[in-house]
Design goal:
This protein is an alpha+beta fold and 229 residues long. The chain has one domain: L-fuculose-1-phosphate Aldolase (3-Layer(aba) Sandwich), CATH 3.40.225.10. Helices cover 36% and strands 21% of the residues. The chain contains 5 helices and 10 strands. Helix 2 packs parallel to helix 4 and helix 3 crosses helix 5. The N and C termini lie far apart (83 Å). Bound molecules: zinc ion.
């Protein structure tokens, strides 16, 4: 006869399982090739602890036991492995937007478009870079948007290997960011109130970015055809 367990389920296990499934799905989309990208969920807020993938490993095949827990200073407090230097940016997004999960991809579309963003104001003021998108039904997948006519402006920050400086620079643009921010030549950070919303926002933003570069390409091809005939 099998003894019935009276232990309460551990919410960390469910969160870890969910995060691994999301990372596997993102990997299948080709948004974190190699050891690219990083992914985190808020495990608790007081004191702050993030459940996240360790640095320098392929994210698609991770199991819950492979994950690490990181404190509010980006120090590993549970599990084996290093915390990514980009943990500081995850922490900045959690702090500034009260995000429950942060998903960071190195997709083709995000990397490409982050280098083509229009300047707003002085191009030397990196905080002024943004990528605007409007006119697409899929915009409505972002929380708070109910019409394709609404425009979003995704902030674009210059890449920086000094993550403390990059995170500090991100704090201002994060306030108005539409659940996503681009790092130039690097990738996309998307977030949401919980893992489900973060995944939804990531998928929507990746769709919008894909759509945007394809549209730019077709328009330019069209222009080329006009000038050569
Ligand atoms: Zn990265």
């Amino acid at each position: 006869m099998t003894a019935t367990s009276t232990e309460a389920p551990d919410p960390k296990n469910d969160l870890a399982q969910g995060l691994c499934e999301v990372m596997a799905a993102i990997d299948r989309r080709g948004w974190c090739d190699g050891t690219g990208g990083n992914f985190s969920c808020v495990l608790r807020r007081q004191p702050l602890a993030l459940l996240m993938a360790p640095s320098g490993v392929e994210k698609g095949g991770l199991k819950p036991c492979d994950l690490i827990v990181v404190n509010g200073k980006a120090e590993v407090i549970e599990g084996k492995g290093r915390a990514s230097a980009e943990t500081l940016l995850h922490l900045a997004i959690v702090a500034q937007r009260e995000a429950g999960a942060v998903l960071h991809t190195h997709s083709q579309a995000a990397t490409l478009l982050s280098r083509l963003a229009n300047f707003k104001g002085d191009p030397l003021e990196a905080e002024g870079w943004q990528l605007t998108i409007k006119g697409l039904e899929m915009l409505k997948g972002l929380q708070g948007i109910d019409s394709h006519e609404q425009q979003i402006a995704i902030p674009v920050l210059p890449n920086d290997q000094d993550l403390a400086r990059l995170s500090q620079r991100a704090m201002g643009p994060l306030i108005e960011a539409p659940f996503g921010i681009l790092i130039s030549g690097h990738g996309l950070y998307a977030w949401g109130d919980d893992l489900t919303m973060a995944k939804r926002h990531l998928e929507i933003l990746e769709f919008l970015l894909e759509q945007h570069w394809r549209e730019l390409l077709l328009r330019n091809l069209g222009n080329g055809m006009v000038t050569t005939t």
